Amino acid sequence: MRALTAIVITEADITELPESIGKLENLTMLQLNRCKHLCKLPASIGQLNSLHRLLMVETAVTELPESFGMLSCLMVLNMGKKHQKREDTEEINFIVPASFSNLSLLYELHARACNISGKIADDFEKLSSLEILNLGRNDFSSLPASLRGLSLLKKLLLPHCKKLKALPPLPLSLEEVDAANCISLESISDISNLENLVMLNLTSCEKVVDIPGLECLKSLVRLYASGCTACSSAIKKRLAKQIPDDIREELPAIVDILGQILRLDFPTFTSALILLGVPNTNEDQVHLCRCPIHHPLVSQLKDGYKIHVMRREPPMMEGVELKKWGIHLVYEGDDDYEGDEESLNESQQSPRKDGKVLQLF
């Protein structure tokens, strides 16, 4: 048994692990996903000096033993839980031991919906290898200033942290920040020095009044601010700039809304259109997608073929309803305006076109 390198126990009706598990000195991976009655880890788990990956998704564990910080080789920890409505479950705050900051090799931490509340300990910089940090759907009100010390952090995921009020100065290495539906978020520290930031999601952050430094983000490709009342001059200035040629033809996608090419009523190609940046509202919305000539929805379209837009069944996400849809083929020169487009309002101006374009709305 001591030669074991991996243990996989999933969806098992166990409540605890034996203390003897600490004797498995060669164990590198321990998976306990969806063992929903597992409520504690033994203190001996800290003796697993070779453990690299600990996966305990959707368990009942609410406290890590003090010995947890002795897992000197741990690189990946996933202890995320499935979000549940508060009225359906008793609130038990997740307890993280002080020794947790000793996990200096940890580069991926998922603690989604673990009911982490209040203030997070201000010793984050000790997790010096961290690259991915997922704290979504927790109830903490603030993030520690030491977060900025995570010099390798690339992804900071904070969606649905509904009590979070402010974003402190962030690590310069960040490539993605997701704070969607942080409905109490009011202030964001200057982000002008986040030169590697590609994606910023502030969907439904309705209390945010400014995003300092937004106009300086040279690498930013995707900004989601629907339902965000930040209507600052910085956002307007950013959106008014020329779209770089190297990302001009990148298309958004909307999960659960599919575009299909039909030949004799049989689908020959299907493309999902990904729904990101949609505000949490019941109001009707209109999405316009322009597919360039090299997109399969255009390049594979032939005489006699049909295009159909539909909702995926069964859906991947609830609450999306497709009420109306339409398509329009645009050829080069079709919507050119011979006069001065500067005199037209934004809805009348036509974007640059190169050949045939398909508009989906």
UniProtKB/TrEMBL annotation:
<protein>
    <recommendedName>
        <fullName>Disease resistance R13L4/SHOC-2-like LRR domain-containing protein</fullName>
    </recommendedName>
</protein>
<dbReference type="Pfam" id="PF23598">
    <property type="entry name" value="LRR_14"/>
</dbReference>
<feature type="domain" description="Disease resistance R13L4/SHOC-2-like LRR">
    <location>
        <begin position="9"/>
        <end position="86"/>
    </location>
</feature>
<feature type="compositionally biased region" description="Basic and acidic residues">
    <location>
        <begin position="351"/>
        <end position="361"/>
    </location>
</feature>
<keyword id="KW-0677">Repeat</keyword>
<feature type="region of interest" description="Disordered">
    <location>
        <begin position="336"/>
        <end position="361"/>
    </location>
</feature>
<dbReference type="InterPro" id="IPR050715">
    <property type="entry name" value="LRR-SigEffector_domain"/>
</dbReference>
<dbReference type="InterPro" id="IPR032675">
    <property type="entry name" value="LRR_dom_sf"/>
</dbReference>
<dbReference type="InterPro" id="IPR055414">
    <property type="entry name" value="LRR_R13L4/SHOC2-like"/>
</dbReference>
